[in-house]
């Protein structure tokens, strides 16, 4: 059992740290305009017309390799806010 003074933290997943740059995008707008559809299309390449209104915040994370003159791994955190 961990004590109240225990400062150990759970190890982070290696996939969460395997990138060169992190970008965070916050999608805001009026209700029922397609913010969640945009989020799912970008992150999962999927679409459904049967979404329920988002309550609070929903997010997806996508790691993508961008080919320039050098290879850079980027991590995009996209948040859908009501």
UniProtKB/TrEMBL annotation:
GO terms for molecular function: G protein activity; GTP binding. It is a lipid-anchor. Its EC number is 3.6.5.2. It catalyses: GTP + H2O = GDP + phosphate + H(+). One of its GO terms (cellular component) is membrane. It is found in: Membrane. Transmembrane segments: none annotated. Gene3D superfamilies: P-loop containing nucleotide triphosphate hydrolases. The keyword Calcium does not apply. Keywords: GTP-binding, Lipoprotein, Nucleotide-binding, Prenylation. Pfam families: Ras. Belongs to the small GTPase superfamily. Rab family. This is small monomeric GTPase. It comes from Anolis carolinensis (Green anole). The lineage of its organism: Eukaryota, Metazoa, Chordata, Craniata, Vertebrata.
